[in-house]
Predict the 3D structure of the following.
Amino acid sequence: MLRIFSLIEEIKKRDLHKKMTFSFQARGDNVNEEILKALYDASFRSVFFGMETSSEKIMKIIKKDETVAQCVDAVKMAKKIGYHVSATFIYGFPEETREDRMNCVKMSRELGLDMVRYNNATPYPGTELYEIAVREGRLNIQGLYENFVSVSTFIENPFVKIPFTYVSTGSSEEELRRDILYSYFSFYFGINRLKQILLNPNQGVGWFNAGKKLRDAVKKIPGLFILSFMMGVKFLQLFYYMVIRRTTRISFKEFLKVFQGGV
């Protein structure tokens, strides 16, 4: 804490808080109202929490050494003060259920998070999850660790999938991938959310910045078009497997809730 307050003091001494804004990452059990207010006063405007799961049971399994309740309280404090709050959830932990994953989306909405990432569990070497994956015989290494990508579902080409490095027992890779896609669409689908991403790129960690000049915006139209096309294909694939093939546990009723703004 002393180091943080020393940083805040130095920022103010140099008047940096009047010239720029800052963002930071934090654990739910390492913040309180005093430190959050002090950072906000020094022009820190966005905070990123690794919430990981909605399940207290999973929190203990992954040995996060904090609770879901602590993470929730931290988010509420940050939102109350005025921060742009982002968070990450990870799908595919040992003993995780689909209900646990859907509760992550529900929690994202209830807390009013501004931005969320839904990642796939990736057992990096040196971690306990890596040892679990080896012990279970479920570690999948492609080439020179080329598939060790925790955000593969979101960034991958919809026609060339990036194989997961680990899939826990009781789930399949395709089920996890579709739950991740469903979570993204459930959270981000809607005019207000899309406007926030496209028109307020400097609020927190923006996904798309068109630039200040019309020329800059025009240059980025092809990239935005490609991104929109790829995400559109993924959405159609999800619809196909849910509604037509019915090969996913996501029901059509749940799918419709995306359009109604809920999970």
